């Protein structure tokens, strides 16, 4: 609904701008009536949008533009009996209507500053005064075509300058010292801590050791073509890391020939900050010929993954990722386990499934307990279907679901970077798991009794994690309220980027590195509100912490506690999440559509006493 409001607003405002341009020279009544109709249509659309999706989604557009759009009509009614002023108002209307189109398309941020208010209010008033001076001092010495040409050139100038200005924002040094304290105070001042000291255990404690070499390799991909991939140890997907809860894991990374350098991020795992793998924040990038060692305790069981975090849109897309499974100390029941990923965009854009620990079994004995640990390495949410049996979602992002219930004829939407554990008991007929975009790239499990054909129909019902499982108490106690309250509004801006005009994705109207730090003290209880006013999905990933989903679109969650590290916020959606600030450091908080992160949609969560010795900005 938000995108309908946004798109319809642009079209209606363009219609009004065109009509004002014609109406300036042709005073026909039907043009006036049509312009009034467009205005009423826009006001009605705003009313419907407010009722259906909430004022939050339209308040910026409507609140900033309504005075601009309405003002020519008010002025015309006021001066309708004074011909000179009437012509003046029409000239003003030509400018201000086209300027409103420009503002909605290129400029309006989530939280406007003083300059934006001047653009929306002060600049039209200034134009009106200048037009008055024009009529008073120059009379008819300037012909009407100058009005049209001047207005067009002015708007084109604004657009060009905005494209350059927005592009420049991504090259800025950023607000290095600017922080958002979420309405709270600095409750304590602790000694400064260097992120490089926030490390894992000593090398003598290591129980599982791995050596990874990142290198390029030509190989065939699921669609049958041959591509140059960038891989860990020459494997797609990378080597499967499988450890037991309590193990101390050590991974030594060597970069053979990835020119831009490389790091490893342990996605969803709350490692110490120095082990997080974010270049120029927790470490320097590992250049060609260099090595780096990560070490941490695997104290949380579940399904996780690892991937490069330098130029990650390109590097993950080319294959630099793999599975990271932490088994509990005590297995609840014996299971046949299958680990896999939806392929990233450069490997196979259509949604093929890639096994992460060897071949996928073709035949499974009826009665076998099966667990599929499935991750999404793509940039976009993936629509996955399991047909042929009832099933359960045992875990989301490595977090167990309390008392999961049976699902059938329900599709799963796994966000970019997210994971789901799917469990079922093998029936005496075929079961099929596939991506809705590519049924041929899925997995078919046949019963050992006889071969049957599995259905590839796509169900209508979507899995709703906010209502799934049984509610229970959590370790996060918000009875005394929250120490920090943050709001993150997602929009977009147009700008020159890589030689073309692109959408750059903003948080609170800012592009990285100008997105202010979210500042916390250790021990703070934090609530964050996500508001997606853009036309794209944004899977928001917070490093180093797990988020508890409190509400979706204003309604409280009613199922099992929904803990996540990668929350997909669809267009027009709002979420409230909470977390405990219990892992000191400087942590990334970004969209895991990695193209969006590259184009500006990232920021950092910083503990008030932690600093990084590295210069520059995080590279996505």
TrEMBL record:
Which Pfam families does the record associate with it? Cu-oxidase_2, Cu-oxidase_3
Residue stretches spanning the membrane: 6-25, 32-51, 57-79, 91-109, 115-134, 146-165
Q: Which CDD domains does this chain map to?
A: CuRO_1_CumA_like (cd13861), CuRO_D2_2dMcoN_like (cd04202)
Q: What keywords appear on the UniProt entry?
A: Copper, Membrane, Metal-binding, Oxidoreductase, Transmembrane, Transmembrane helix
Plastocyanin-like domain segment(s) = 215-330, 502-607
Q: What are the protein's GO molecular function terms?
A: copper ion binding; oxidoreductase activity
- What is this protein identified as? FtsP/CotA-like multicopper oxidase with cupredoxin domain
Q: Where does this protein come from, organism-wise?
A: Listeria rocourtiae
């Amino acid at each position: 609904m938000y995108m309908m409001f946004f798109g319809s607003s642009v079209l209606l405002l363009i219609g009004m701008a065109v009509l004002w341009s014609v109406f300036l020279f042709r005073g026909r009544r039907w043009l006036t009536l049509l312009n009034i109709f467009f205005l009423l249509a826009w006001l009605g659309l705003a009313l419907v949008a407010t009722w259906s999706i909430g004022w939050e989604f339209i308040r910026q557009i409507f609140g900033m533009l309504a005075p601009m759009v309405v003002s020519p009509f008010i002025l015309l009614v006021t001066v309708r009996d004074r011909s000179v002023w009437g012509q003046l108002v029409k000239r003003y209307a030509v400018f201000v209507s086209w300027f409103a189109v420009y503002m909605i398309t290129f400029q309006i941020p989530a939280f406007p500053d003083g300059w934006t208010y001047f653009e929306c209010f002060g600049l039209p008033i200034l134009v009106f005064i200048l037009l008055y001076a024009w009529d008073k001092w120059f009379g008819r010495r300037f012909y009407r075509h100058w009005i049209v040409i001047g207005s067009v050139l002015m708007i084109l100038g604004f657009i060009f300058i905005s494209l350059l200005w927005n592009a420049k924002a991504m090259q800025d040094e950023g607000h290095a010292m600017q922080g958002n304290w979420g309405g709270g105070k600095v409750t304590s001042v602790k000694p400064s801590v260097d992120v490089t000291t926030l490390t894992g255990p000593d090398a003598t404690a290591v129980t599982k050791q791995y050596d990874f070499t990142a290198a390029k390799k030509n190989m065939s991909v699921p669609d049958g073509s041959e591509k140059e991939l960038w891989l860990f140890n020459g494997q797609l997907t990378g080597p499967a890391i499988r450890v037991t809860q309590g193990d101390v894991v050590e991974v030594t990374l060597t970069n053979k020939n990835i020119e831009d350098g490389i790091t490893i991020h342990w996605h969803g795992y709350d490692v110490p900050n120095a082990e997080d793998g974010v270049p120029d924040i927790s470490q320097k990038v590992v250049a060609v010929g260099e090595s780096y060692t990560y070490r941490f305790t695997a104290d949380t069981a579940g399904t996780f993954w690892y991937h490069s975090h330098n130029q990650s849109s390109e590097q993950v897309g080319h294959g630099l990722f793999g599975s990271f499974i932490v088994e509990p100390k005590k297995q609840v029941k014996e299971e046949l386990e299958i680990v896999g990923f939806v392929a990233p965009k450069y490997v196979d854009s259509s949604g093929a499934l890639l096994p992460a620990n060897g071949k996928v079994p073709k035949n499974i004995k009826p009665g076998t307990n099966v667990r599929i640990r499935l991750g999404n390495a793509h940039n976009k949410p993936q629509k996955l279907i399991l047909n042929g049996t009832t099933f359960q979602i045992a875990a989301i992002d490595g977090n167990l679901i309390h008392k999961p219930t049976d699902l059938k004829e329900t599709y799963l939407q796994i966000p970019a970077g997210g994971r789901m554990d799917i469990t079922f008991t093998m029936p005496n007929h075929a079961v099929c798991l596939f991506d809705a975009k590519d049924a041929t790239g899925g997995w078919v499990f046949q019963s050992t009794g006889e071969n049957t054909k599995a259905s590839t129909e796509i169900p209508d019902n979507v899995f709703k994690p906010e209502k799934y499982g049984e509610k229970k108490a959590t370790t996060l106690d918000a009875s005394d309220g929250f120490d920090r309250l943050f709001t993150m509004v997602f929009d977009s801006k147009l700008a020159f980027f890589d030689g073309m005009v692109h959408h750059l994705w903003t948080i609170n109207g800012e592009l990285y590195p100008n997105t202010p730090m979210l500042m916390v003290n250790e021990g703070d209880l934090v609530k964050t509100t996500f508001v997606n006013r853009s036309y794209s999905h944004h899977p928001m990933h917070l490093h180093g912490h797990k988020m508890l989903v409190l509400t979706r679109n204003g309604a409280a969650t009613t199922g099992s506690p929904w803990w996540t590290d990668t929350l997909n916020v669809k267009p027009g959606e709002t979420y409230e999440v909470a977390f405990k600030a219990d892992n000191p450091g400087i942590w990334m908080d970004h969209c895991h559509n990695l193209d969006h992160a590259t184009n500006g949609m990232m920021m950092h969560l910083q503990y008030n006493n932690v600093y990084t010795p590295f210069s520059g900005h995080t590279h996505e």
